[in-house]
Design goal:
Chain B: This is YdbS-like PH domain-containing protein. Chain B: It holds the Pfam family bPH_2. Chain B: InterPro entries: YdbS-like_PH (IPR005182). The structure holds 2 protein chains of 2 kinds. Chain A is built from 16 helices and 20 strands. Chain A is α+β, with helices and mostly antiparallel strands. Chain A folds into 4 domains: about 140 residues, PH-domain like (Roll); about 80 residues, no CATH class; about 180 residues, no CATH class; about 50 residues. In chain A, the strands form 4 sheets. Chain A has a 7-stranded antiparallel beta sheet. A 6-stranded antiparallel beta sheet of chain A has the order 14-13-12-17-16-15. Chain A is globular. The two termini of chain A are about 35 Å apart. By secondary structure, chain B is α+β, with helices and mostly antiparallel strands. Chain B has 2 domains: about 90 residues, PH-domain like, CATH 2.30.29; about 60 residues, no CATH class. Chain B is built from 5 helices and 7 strands; from the N terminus they run αβααββββαββα. In chain B, the strands form 2 sheets. A 4-stranded antiparallel beta sheet of chain B has the order 1-2-3-4. In chain B, a hairpin with a 6-residue loop joins strand 6 and strand 7. Chain B is elongated. Classes of the chains: A alpha+beta, B alpha+beta. Chains A and B meet through strand 18 and helix 16 of A and strand 4 of B. Strand 18 of chain A pairs antiparallel with strand 4 of chain B, so a sheet runs across the interface.
C-alpha cells in the first residue's frame, strides 16, 4: 500500500482562531477592544495559519500518522488494529464551507486520539473508508493467529454472518447495507419521551441573555413576574409576602420545565434527524443530524457491551433504545457509546439485541427480598433527612408546618419496591445480563470475554445482611457516565458464585476464541 | 526477608509473612496513617484559623477533635492492614481489601496492561513501595498493592509481568 501524504484542506482555521481570540479579549474593557482586537486578529490568524501549515496526516499501510503543533511538535502513529471508531461531524458553517471534522478514537487516554479538522467532505469520507478498508486488510493478514477477535458466542450465533462478511469485505467499501432507519414517528416519540437534563441550562442561558439585553441591573427578568401575576404572583421581589413568592417560584419552575422539555425535544430531533444505521463489512456505519451532521463507523469487534435503555414513559408506550459501547470516546456524547437504534418498539429492540449478541432471552433472576428491605430502610433514611431539612428551614425562616414534609414517607415503599423490581440479572452461557434502574432502566449484555475485572463489594450494611454487590468492569468508556455494570444486593454466596463463573467463562471464552474465528456478534442484527 | 512467597503462584499471601509482619506493622501503619495524620494537622490548623478569625473555639475542643481524628486514623490504618490480602491464583490476581466497604477483586492476568512499582515520598522514607497493576477497564482500572519492601515489589512486578505474557496477553479493546 502506497503511503499517501496529504495536506489538510480547508481554510476556516484562521476565522476560528479569530473568533476565539476576539472573545477572549472582549471582557477586559470595551475601549481596549478597538486596538486589541486587531492584534488578536492578526496573532490568532497567524497562529491559525501556522497551525494549518504545520499540521499533516498520512494514511499508510499499517498506521495513521498525524503530526501537529506550532511550538511543540507531536507526531503520532495509530495502528489500525487499535482504532475503535471513526467519527465525522459537520457543523452548520462547516457544511456550508464543505469541510468536516474527522475524529479517530482508540482505547488509550481520555481523549480523542486524532482530530483532523477542516478536511473536505470527500476527503473525510475517503479517510473513513480507507481506514475501514485498511483495518480489514490488517485483520485479514493476521486472521490465522487472530488474537484481536472475540469469539465466545460460537454456539449461539450461526457462523454464517461473520464468515460471509469476511469474504465480501473488500468490495463493500462504498455502499453499506441498511440495517435500521429511524422513522419520523419514532424520532418524534424519542424526542418527546427522552429528557435531557443538560437542556435545563438552555433556558437559564436564554434568560441571562435576555436580562442582559433589556433590564440590565434587574436580577429577575420582567416576564417572570408577568407570567406569575394572573395566579397571584408578586409585582416585585421587595416586600412580597411568602404566599405570592411561592406562587412565583412555582410558576417559574413550571415555565422552566416546559422550556427545558421543549429545548430537549428540539435538541434530540436536531441530533437524531435522519438516523440511519448500516453495515459495511464487519463495521456498523451510522449517519444522523439535522443541522450538525454526524457519521461514523464502529467496528463490530470493538463493541464492549450492548445496552437497552428505556425510561418509564417509553416502557409505558412499549418502546426502547439500543446502544453499543466501545472503549473509544465519541465526539458528541463524550464517551464511546453510540445509539444503534435510538428508538423502536420494545419487541423489535429485544430481537435486535438478541440477534446482535446471541444472548437468548431468559428469565431475569432477582436479588433476595432482603434487598428490598434494605432499600426501604435506605429511602426511609432519606425521608428523615428531608424532614430534618424542612425542620431546619423552619427554624431560620418563616416556614411553618414543617412536619408536612413527612408526606415524602408515602413515596418510600413504592420507591423501594420499584428499585427492587427493576433489578435483575441473567448468568448466561456466553453473556452476563444485568438490569438496573427505574427512571432510566438499563439492561446491559456483557459477553464474558469482555470482562476486565470482577469485584465483589460489601459495605458495612451489606455485611450485616450478608449481601454483596458484584461489579463487572469492561473497557467500555460509557461506564464513566452510566456507572460500571453492577448486580446489586445479591446473596454473598451467589455473588461469589457468579464472581467465579465470570472468571471461569472468561478463560474458556478466550480459549474458544483462540480456536475458532468468530467475532461473537452478528452484524446483520435487524 | 523472605521473598519466595510472591513467586509462588498459589496460596494466600498477606502483605508480609509472619516474620516480617511486625516489621511491616511498624512501617505500613505509619505509611497509611501519615496521610490521615496530615488530615488531622490540617483540621487543627483550620480550627485554629477559625478561632482567630470568626468565632472562638475552645482549645479543649480543638484538642479533642484532633485526638479523635488521630485515634480514628490509627484504628482505620490497623483495620486496613488486617483486612489486606492478595493472592496470585492460577488465572488471576486476587485481592481483598477495605474497611467500610470490603472489596474482593479478581484481575485476570490476561487483562493486565502494565505493572508499575511506585515509591511515594512517605513510602520512600519508610523503605516501602507499592505495585500498581493496570487494566484496560474503565473504573478501578488500577489496582494497588501497598506496603511491600522494594525487593518484594520488584519481584512481584516481575512475576506479574511474566504471568501476563504467559497468558497470551492479546488485547481485547
Amino acid at each position: 500500500m502506497l503511503a499517501l501524504q496529504r495536506g489538510v484542506t480547508g481554510f476556516s482555521m484562521p476565522f476560528f482562531f479569530v473568533m476565539i481570540s476576539a472573545s477572549v479579549v472582549d471582557f477586559v474593557a470595551i475601549g481596549w477592544v478597538f486596538w486589541l482586537a486587531p492584534i488578536g486578529f492578526v496573532a490568532g490568524a497567524g497562529y491559525g495559519l501556522a497551525h494549518y501549515y504545520r499540521f499533516g496526516y498520512a494514511v499508510t499501510a499499517d498506521t495513521v500518522d498525524v503530526s501537529s503543533g506550532v511550538f511543540s511538535r507531536r507526531s503520532r502513529e495509530i495502528p489500525y488494529r487499535r482504532i475503535q471508531n471513526v467519527d465525522v461531524s459537520q457543523g452548520l458553517l462547516q457544511r456550508v464551507l464543505g469541510v468536516a471534522v474527522v475524529s479517530i478514537e482508540t482505547a488509550g487516554g481520555g481523549d480523542t486520539e486524532a482530530t483532523l479538522r477542516f478536511v473536505s467532505d470527500d476527503e473525510a469520507d475517503w479517510i473513513r473508508a480507507e481506514i475501514r478498508r485498511l483495518t480489514a486488510a490488517t485483520a485479514e493478514s493476521t486472521a490465522d493467529s487472530d488474537a484481536d477477535r472475540p469469539a465466545s458466542a460460537a454456539e449461539s450465533v450461526p457462523a454464517s454472518p461473520a464468515a460471509s462478511t469476511r469474504r465480501d469485505r473488500s468490495e463493500d467499501g462504498t455502499a453499506p447495507t441498511q440495517l435500521f432507519e429511524l422513522e419520523a414517528g419514532e424520532l418524534l416519540l424519542y424526542a418527546l419521551s427522552s429528557f435531557r437534563w443538560g437542556a435545563a441550562v438552555f433556558p437559564l442561558v436564554l434568560v441571562l441573555f435576555l436580562t442582559d439585553a433589556d433590564s440590565g441591573t434587574n436580577l429577575v427578568p420582567a416576564f417572570v413576574f408577568d407570567a406569575a401575576r394572573p395566579f397571584g404572583g408578586p409585582a416585585t421581589l421587595e416586600g412580597a409576602a411568602v404566599g405570592p413568592l411561592l406562587v412565583l417560584i412555582a410558576v417559574s419552575l413550571v415555565q422552566w420545565s416546559v422550556f427545558t422539555y421543549v429545548s430537549s425535544a428540539v435538541y434530540t430531533i436536531a441530533s437524531y434527524y435522519g438516523f440511519r444505521l448500516g453495515r459495511a463489512g464487519d463495521d456498523f456505519v451510522y449517519e444522523r443530524g439535522l443541522l450538525q451532521r454526524y457519521s461514523g463507523s464502529i467496528p463490530a469487534d470493538k463493541v464492549q457491551s450492548v445496552t437497552i435503555a428505556e425510561n418509564p414513559l417509553q416502557r409505558l408506550l412499549g418502546y426502547a433504545g439500543l446502544w453499543v459501547e466501545t472503549a473509544g470516546y465519541g465526539p458528541d456524547s463524550g464517551d464511546g457509546s453510540q445509539a444503534t437504534v435510538p428508538m423502536a418498539r420494545r419487541d423489535r429492540v429485544s430481537r435486535f439485541a438478541e440477534n446482535l449478541t446471541g444472548a437468548k432471552p431468559s428469565r431475569f433472576q432477582s436479588p433476595p427480598p432482603l434487598a428490598r428491605r434494605r432499600y426501604l430502610v435506605r429511602y426511609a433514611l432519606i425521608g428523615c433527612v428531608v424532614v430534618a431539612a424542612a425542620f431546619g428551614l423552619a427554624r431560620v425562616s418563616a416556614l411553618e408546618r414543617w412536619y408536612l414534609a413527612a408526606v415524602v414517607f408515602v413515596a418510600v415503599p413504592p420507591a423501594a419496591h420499584l428499585r427492587y423490581a427493576n433489578l435483575g440479572y441473567v448468568v448466561g452461557d456466553d453473556h452476563l445480563v444485568i438490569r438496573t434502574g427505574f427512571w432510566k432502566r438499563r439492561t446491559t449484555v456483557i459477553p464474558y470475554y469482555r470482562i476486565q475485572t470482577v469485584a465483589t463489594r460489601r459495605s458495612v450494611f451489606q455485611r450485616r445482611l450478608e449481601l454483596a454487590s458484584l461489579t463487572v468492569d469492561t473497557a467500555s468508556s460509557r461506564t464513566f457516565v452510566w456507572g460500571t455494570p453492577t448486580i446489586y444486593d445479591i446473596d454473598l454466596e451467589t455473588a461469589r458464585e457468579i464472581h467465579g463463573t465470570g472468571r471461569e467463562r472468561l478463560q474458556s471464552a478466550l480459549r474458544d476464541r483462540a480456536r475458532t474465528d468468530d467475532i461473537g456478534l452478528s452484524v446483520d442484527f435487524t | 526477608m523472605t521473598d519466595d512467597d510472591t513467586v509462588r503462584p498459589l496460596g494466600t499471601v498477606a502483605l508480609s509473612t509472619w516474620i516480617d509482619r511486625i516489621w511491616a506493622w511498624s512501617r505500613f501503619i505509619p505509611a497509611s496513617g501519615c496521610s490521615g495524620s496530615l488530615a488531622a494537622v490540617v483540621l487543627a490548623v483550620a480550627l485554629v484559623v477559625l478561632d482567630q478569625w470568626r468565632l472562638t473555639v475552645p482549645t479543649v475542643a480543638i484538642g479533642i477533635v484532633v485526638a479523635l481524628t488521630l485515634a480514628l486514623v490509627v484504628a482505620y490504618a490497623v483495620r486496613r492492614y488486617q483486612g489486606w490480602r492478595f493472592e496470585l491464583q492460577d488465572d488471576a490476581l486476587y485481592l481483598e481489601r477495605g474497611v467500610v466497604t470490603v472489596v474482593e477483586t479478581a484481575v485476570p492476568f490476561v487483562r493486565v496492561q502494565h505493572v508499575d512499582t511506585q515509591f511515594g515520598p512517605i513510602e520512600r522514607v519508610l523503605g516501602l513501595s507499592s505495585v500498581v497493576v493496570y487494566t484496560a477497564g474503565s473504573r478501578n482500572a488500577d489496582v494497588r498493592i501497598p506496603g511491600l519492601t522494594p525487593d518484594r515489589a520488584r519481584s512481584l512486578q516481575e512475576t506479574l509481568r511474566e504471568l501476563a505474557i504467559e497468558s497470551e496477553a492479546e488485547d481485547a479493546v
